[in-house]
Amino acid sequence: xxxxxxxPAHYTDGKIEVxxxxxxxxxxxxxxxxxxxxxRAGKKSPDTELEDLKKAQWYLNRYIELxxxxxxxxxxxxxxxxxxxxxxxxxxxxxxxxxxTESVVLQGRxx
Length: 111
Hints:
The protein has helices at about 20-25, 30-40, 50-75, 80-85, 100-105. The protein has about 110 residues and is mainly alpha-helical.
């Protein structure tokens, strides 16, 4: 009996279901989809074999692009701010006492 929800025929034609393989190998989402689309290519419908292979290719290309972006970010030099010498005085500068009239002018309220 074909169970299209729990065990679709296009995923169960071998000794192990595709989902079990993906989980056993702890594959990330993109690579899991590559395996899924390759393993079912042409089995759900012979007319969709090329479409399934293109979907697998799309997920693989996207995963490669993400990995390249991560690698580029990890080899970039740190920003200039990170290279600056650390400040030794961690206390904020002392506050200067402000007269009331000076405070009003600074806040934009002129008398």
